[in-house]
Amino acid sequence: MRHLTYKVRFLGLVAIAALAGMWPMAAQAATAPSLGTAASFAVLGASTVTCTGPSRIVGDVGVSPGSAITGFPPCKLTGTFHSADAVSAQAQADATTAYNALKGATCPAANNLTGTDLGGLTLAPGVYCFSSSAQLTGTLNLSGGGVYIFQIGSTLTTASGSSVLISNAQPCDASSNVFWQVGSSATLGTTTAFAGNILANISITMTTGATLDGRAIALTGAVTMDTNTISTCGQTGGGGNGHRTHCNQGVGNGPEGCDPGNSNQGDPSRSNDELGGVPGHPGRQGGNGK
To answer: pLDDT tens for residues 157-203?
Structure first.
């Protein structure tokens, strides 16, 4: 009887800790869908792609079936433009397939977060769902390597200064293994540091200073950016959290956005871009201060 009493007390403490956001919430294992040809795109819109301010995009930028891509320059691209061509059309088709796979993933009843702000939560890999809108105010901690899928019935909105952090995960998990399936539109608030692949059924808006380590894909509407940094892991070698702690960003080379080649780590003699190297190369003397 005493053993049973202790067991009941322990389980009670576990439940309280999970509700308080102190205990990583367990989840059913999730499987990442293939993005197909959409994987090379940092930004993919359906009607238009609009960029203002000194934004920096690392990865391809495309639009289909629309054709308008505006704002380059002043926005800068490390990648290729695809406007209403066969490549962007196929990427949209592949993105739609991935979106449907994400929407169809099984979400355990215990992982229904409807009405819960993501800010302050610590989540383990798995499938989480919202029957309507989802809000992030503050910091969401994703704890551990694995696949994270967020199914959102309508809108995804983040408050200013919010962030998504990934701990105990391998580099590139942010853009490879975190997926946000958004039923309507996503809006990232000012200076938000976000991570993962956003696949929105309608549109995506990134407000001033927001960053995305992953991809912004809108299936039927526009992607709108204003002074942002968006980078795909496959292009940058970054990842790990919204601030890309694994990247080789050099000093004095623009916003912390994993722009390729900037690997001087405070010593210009080691940076391949200052010395005419090829973007994406690890840099002179191995980069990273080696």
So the answer is: 999 999 998 876 555 555 689 999 999 999 999 999 999 999 999 99
**150: pLDDT strictly greater than 70:** yes
Domain that includes residue 276, residue range: 260-290
Shared domain for 180 and 213, answered yes or no, is: yes
Query: Which has the closest alpha carbon to 246: 170, 139, 177?
Result: 170
Tell me: do 59 and 198 sit in the same domain. Answer: yes
- pLDDT (mean) for 117-138: 97
Within 30-70, strands assigned E span: 41-45, 48-52, 56-58, 60-63, 68-70
**3 state DSSP class of 123:** strand
Residue 102: how many other CB atoms lie within 10 Å = 21
Distances (CA, A) of 46 to 64, 90, 189, 229, 233: 5, 12, 22, 20, 23
